[in-house]
Amino acid sequence: MKKLIIDNQEYKSRLILGTGKYKDFEETGKAVEASGCEMVTVAIRRLNIGQDKGSPSLLDVISPDKFTILPNTAGCYNSEDAVRTCELASELLSGKTLVKLEVLSDSKTLYPNVVETLKASEILVKKGFKVMVYTTDDPVVAKELEKIGCACIMPLGSAIGSGLGIINEFNIREIVENADVPIIVDAGVGTASDACIAMELGCDGVLMNTAIACAKNPILMASAMKHAIEAGSKAYEAGRIEKTLKGVASSPKDGVITDD
Amino acid sequence: MNIILNNESDEVHDGITIKELLDDKKIHTQYIAIEINKKIIPKSSYYKFELKEGDKIEIITAIGGG
Lengths: 260, 66
What we know:
The structure holds two protein chains of two kinds.
Chain A: E1 4-6, E2 9-11, E3 15-18, H1 25-35, E4 39-46, H2 58-61, E5 68-72, H3 79-92, E6 98-101, H4 114-126, E7 130-135, H5 139-148, E8 152-155, H6 169-178, E9 184-186, H7 192-200, E10 205-208, H8 210-213, H9 218-238
Parallel strand pairs in A: 3-4, 3-10, 4-5, 6-7, 7-8, 9-10
Antiparallel strand pairs in A: 1-2
Chain B: E1 2-5, E2 8-11, H1 18-24, E3 32-36, E4 39-41, E5 56-64
Parallel strand pairs in B: 1-5
Antiparallel strand pairs in B: 1-2, 3-4, 3-5
């Protein structure tokens, strides 16, 4: 399988973890470790100024020295807010320019606003950001984002947090076949088989948060996802058999012990 | 003088620098970024950047998120 290289860095793990919704930082840290991931997403928010002095921040637990920190523009509903968030994130992370761009349309569906996403992508790429962009599973839009210069295209499997898995495998396959940049399924994964299918379709990786953080046992699910992604990746490389409508015997027809 | 800090009104002494404000609020500077009136202020300027009446200050950090 071709190497996963994003912003000139090679990743052995094809799993990217979101860090939201965990019980506490300890659980976050353990899930990250069990997943074997090398990149995690974070949200950019106003500091809680009333916070107790000395209480650890997320980045004390998930160190930028050990992991690639991918700041996410989640919560932004227009290109202006998204670009502003990326610039603040870059300042926060000592000038790093790798970002996850996510511009949503409405709080009910959390569906990507493609128009604003395209607009923000153009601005960010011109400013020198390396943009990993969350978008719909529309192959035309995916190609347009690639033409703009996004470093990685991240189509949804289904709605954020829905756990519905990949609802349009044909579109994901089409996006993968036409892409010259990494394709990472982002959003919609519910359980390990969904992640495995994404990899079997030829995706370069999977980004997930809720499926692990909200599982009954997040740390065990993180491990399951790690193995599912490895299995799907190997299966894609190995090449699956063709599907047939009739049975095809595995044993030789000749030499069967019968009186007929 | 009055400033708007993370969308809330706050009273500080005239000519307070960003560094003094952070010290007063016991905020560590390692994992934050600051914007004054929508302009990002680099960390190297915190010690000399003086706030003015009515300034809108945003102090942001990274938290858990997908």
